[in-house]
Structures are given as structure tokens and as C-alpha cells.
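Morning F.,

Quick status update on the modeling queue. The single chain you submitted on Monday has been processed. Sequence for confirmation:
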Amino acid sequence: MSRIIAALASFWLAIAAASAQDFSGLARLDATQSGITDDGWTGLRIELALSQGVPYRLFTLDEPARLVLDFQEVDWGGVSPGQLLQSKQLKQVQFGTYVPGWSRMVLELAEPMAVAGAEMQIDSASGRAHLTVTLAPQSAEAFASNAGAPHDPRWDLPEPADVPAGLRRGPDAPLIVVLDPGHGGIDPGAETGGLFEKDLMLRFARELREVLLRAGDFQVVLTRDSDHFVSLEQRVAIAHQAGADVFLSLHADSLAEGQAHGATVHVLSRAASDVASAKLAERHDRGDLLSGVDLSQADDRVTGILLDLARQETRPRTQALAQALVDGMMQAGGPMNRRPLRKAGFSVLKAADIPSVLVEIGFLSSPRDLANLRDPAWRGGMARGIRDGLLAWRQADAARRPLVRH
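C-alpha cells below.
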């Protein structure tokens, strides 16, 4: 307990000192003077050399055991995890933009460890800073009891605004489409040859937005319009806040086992339709661990019943949406996977009242798909195929609405 109190005291003193010096701008990480190493036989030592001091905070998360460091703000350019990771007591380290203006480093620990000390020293002459964090072994029970993200308005995003219930828009109102470019910031997604899924999907989402807006029948919202991290929970919250009619999560993953080619469209299901869908769901949902949000806990009984009732109406509309998108992309030339319509338990599709699908535009592990994803003409055709699918679905959905019981 004394170690925890000391670590917290060190943390708040560092915050106060950083705030007092009114740091601003990006701090650059010097990889040559930084590293994550073993501290004695069982401890861990983190040394980060920064071009200037910045406010920071740290906390731990459980399942799996992680240490999270937030900064305002660090430029990680030119630094790879391998340059820093020199300890066998870590499974992996990831870092990058968390939200605009904030950076995050996440260390997945091999065993539960407590923060024993944290200190940022700043050179009065140069302004350069050196952050040292030490960790010591801790029991799993003690780690779990102390883990959890702190809530501080100086650091946290504001809560999504409530959307007034019962709002009805006219039949000629634009279709509100929320486009969700997968991954982002600290979570790069799949990678091949220096290309990251997060960047490819952000570019495609922007291009698709333009295609939809030019059609004149759509209002489009992006869950992120820059390279920053958005948790799975926040992506769904953005869709609710926008009053979305449709939620499209965009991905271009990579499968190491077997071969996968062509676009696929996934709808939510408790059981995956195949092994590949199960693996993709596991990969996508892992991104949520970075923010410490757990969407897997069961709702209470009453809430569960209400959600099931909402899904009874949404499920057939979602199935129809997925099929319309498959048809639209196929008519645009695809190529589509030989089994383009699939099911999986993607957490990002769990909005009970919004037809939501996850579109794998292609697979980075497929040379053909990768070439297509890099081709502006192909992306334009695929975007028009999605537009046509949405238009066809909206027309059919409007025709079916009088048949739905209210």
C-alpha cells in the first residue's frame, strides 16, 4: 500500500509541476536515450527522454495486466516498439495518438506489477525532460483491486450528449450514415510493407464521405477524421449522438492463416459463421483493450430484455442492409469474397437500435486486394458501389416500414 501511495503522490506532484511550467507543443521522444528494461531480477524500469516536459499521468488496467501512460503530447515519429522494448517482463508495447492533443503508451505486462515510483526531471537550461517509472511485482488480487482508469475532467473526453428520444424525421430527410474508419492512433490495425490499416481506412472513409455527399441524399459523420484512437464504446456512442440511421465500420484486415481475398460484409452474431470471422472479431475487439473499456459484461435483466426487443426490429433491417451492400459492391466490380456475407460477434456492431455492419473492403494479406486498396480508381468504384447499396436499401426499407409493428 505504501508503494501505491508513493506512486500516486509522485504522479500528482509531476502533474502539478508540469502544469505550473505551462508546457505546450509536441515533445519529441529521443529513442537513443530511452528504453524499457528489467530493474533487478523482478522489477521493470521505463526511461523516456523527451525534448521538453509535458503533463502526464499513469494508471494500470487489468485483464490483461497493463500500464498506461498518457501525455500531452508526444511525437513518436521514427520510433518503433522494438527500439524501446528490452525486457522479457513485457508482452508488447504500443504508442501513438490517443485523442487529438493527447498521446498514449500501453505496456502489456507479463505479470501483475505495481507502480513503485514515477518522476519527471527537467533540465533548467535546455528544458529537456527525463521520465523514469519503476514497477515492482504485485499479487494478482492486489493488482486487480487497484486497476482502473481515473476520471479527471482535465484529461477525459466529455461525455456524449444525450439524443432526444422519439425524434422522427420526414421520409425525404437525408439518410444519416456514420462511417467508422477502423483502428487509429495507438491502434494501427493490420500492417504490410509500411502501410497501416488505420491510414488506408481513414483515406477510404473520407473518399466515401465525398461520394455520399455528392449524391445529395446523405448526411455523413465520421467517428474519426484524423489519426487518433477511438474506443469501441465511443464509436457506438458517436453513432447514437448523431442519430444515425446506418453505421458502417470500415476495415482491411490481414489473416496470417489461410488465404482471404475480396470484400466481405459482417453482421452481428453471438456465434461466428466461420473460423476466419471469429479471428477477425478477436483482432478488432482487442483494440478496445487499449482504452480499458470492457463491452463484454452482461446487461442487467431488464435492460437485456429491452435490448432484445430493439434487436428484433433491427436484425432483419441489418441483414437487408448487408445484402444490399454486397449487391452494390458486386455490381461495381468488387471483387467480392466467395462468401461475402458473414456473421461475427464484433463489439462495434452492438448498437441495438441502429442497423450496423462491418465491411472488410479487402485483405492486406492478399496482394490483389492490396493493389486495389492503393488504386484511387478502384476505391472510387467501391465507394460508388456502397452508395448504390445504401440507396437501394433505403428504398426497400421505406417500403417495408408500414409492415413493422409499433
